[in-house]
Amino acid sequence: MCLGVPGKVLDIRDERGTQMATVDFGGVTKNVCLAYVPQAKVGDYTLIHAGFAITMVDEESALKTLELFGELGLLDEELGVPADAAVDDRTITGRPPGAVMS
What we know:
- By secondary structure, the chain is of the alpha+beta class.
- It is 24% helix and 33% strand.
- It is globular, with a radius of gyration of 13 Å.
């Protein structure tokens, strides 16, 4: 399955003329191309598909989506996280497991 997964931009750098970033997906980081969202800044949330940031998203929507993907068991599969290194609710939402979003 191919999903667009929201992530937080941790750093931005130029690699051979292409804007790249390290993006955090609730504790899992990946290198991502920012060519389609050159306005992205450190701290922003973007929707990532196939290694490319394709649009900007707000923090609330990003965290809610990460939480739902985690509950459905889709996040680890989509990010290529080994089953023995699963991301738990604490790293996805920054809240203790079982905490209710307001």
